[in-house]
Amino acid sequence: NTVTPASRAAGAAVAANPAVQAHVAVLPHLASAPPAALGTATVSYTVNTPTDPSTGTACVPTGQPQPAGTVCSLRQALSNADTNTAGTSGATEVDVPAGLYVLTQGEIQLNATGGVIVQGSKTGATILSAPGNASGQGQIDRVVEVMGGQGDLRNLEISGGYEQNGNGGGVLVDAGAQSVMDTVNVNSNYAGLYGGGVEVAGIANILGSTIGGKSGMGNSSGAGSGGIDVTGQLWMSNSSVIGNAALGTDGSSGGQDTGGGIGVTDQLIATNLTVDDNTVPTDSYGAGISVFN
Q1: CA-CA distance, 226 to 257, in Å (whole number)?
Q2: Rounded distance between C-alpha atoms, residue 157 and residue 145, angstroms
Q3: pTM surpassing 0.85?
Q4: Contacts of 164 (CB under 8 A, 6+ apart)
C-alpha cells in the first residue's frame, strides 16, 4: 500500500480498501520472537453459569469434589486464577462452555501470576459480550483487558465492547502484558479513540482469527485503527481483518483517523493476512493498513 498523508474534514463519506492477501513486515523497531502459547495448566476451573454476579463463592478446581450448589462464573474463576498459588509455576485454565456470557459488571481482567488461558468451546460458540447501557445507546465497557503477565484467548467470540473515551473496544493488551489469541473472532466493538477491535500496547500473537466481519459486524473507532491499533508488537498469521472502520468522529485532525483495518506505530509481522473491505473517511488515507514511523 502507498500511504500519502492527508488532513481530514468532517464528513460521513468513506474510502474502502480492496481485498489484500499478503505477507507484511512493518519493523520500525527491532523485532523479537512472537510469544508462544501457554502450556498445560497446573490448575483449571470450569464455568457453570452464564451470569455475571458482582460477588460469589470461590470456584472449585476441576477434578475436585464440587459442593452442592457451587456456582462458578467466569469473573469468579478469573479472580481465583489471579490468586492461585499453584499457578505461580504454571498457567491457570478457565474453561468456558458454549453460550452467551454477558459481562454486566464490566470488562474481565487477566492478570494471573503464572498466566491464564480463557478456553472457549471447540464445538460451539462461546461468546463474551458487553451489555447495552440503561439508555440503550451503546455498551458500558470493553470486553477483555490483559493487564499483566500472559493472558491467552482461545476459541472465543468477543463482541459488543464500547470503550467510549479510550482504546481497545474489544480487547486491550496493556504495555508489559502479552497475549496469544488463537481462533478468536473479535467483532462489533467500538473505541472512542483507537483500536475498535483490539489495542496492542504490549505484545500479542494472533493466529487463525478474524478481526471484524461482513454484514455490519466490523469494529469501529472514533479516531483511527478501526480494527487493530498496534503501539506495541504484534504477530499475525492465517487471519483476516475485514469490514472495520475508522470513523473520524472524535474531532481529530491532520489525517489521524487512518487505518480502517490496522494502524501501526511500532511493529507488525504478518503471514497469510487478508485485509478487506475496511474504510476511512474519503479525505483520509490507509483504509486497509496505515503505518506511522
Answers
A1: 9
A2: 15
A3: yes
A4: 138, 192
- Alpha-carbon distances of 2 from 18, 125, 227, 285, 289, rounded to whole Å: 13, 38, 19, 9, 10
Per DSSP, what are the bridge partners of residue 245? 220, 279
**What cell numbers appear for 135 in the block?**
439508555
Q: Which tens digits make up the pLDDT trace of 178-227?
A: 999 999 999 999 999 999 999 999 999 999 999 999 988 999 999 889 99
Pull the grid cell for residue 143: 470486553
Residue type for position 14: V
Q: Where are the alpha helices (DSSP H) in the chain?
A: 74-83
| Residue in the block written with cell 502450556 | 39
Q: What is the DSSP string of 91-124?
A: -EEEE--SEEEE-TT--EEE--TT-EEEE--SSS
Strand order in the sheet with 171-173: 108-110, 144-146, 171-173, 198-200, 228-230, 262-264, 289-291
C-alpha cell at 221: 473507532
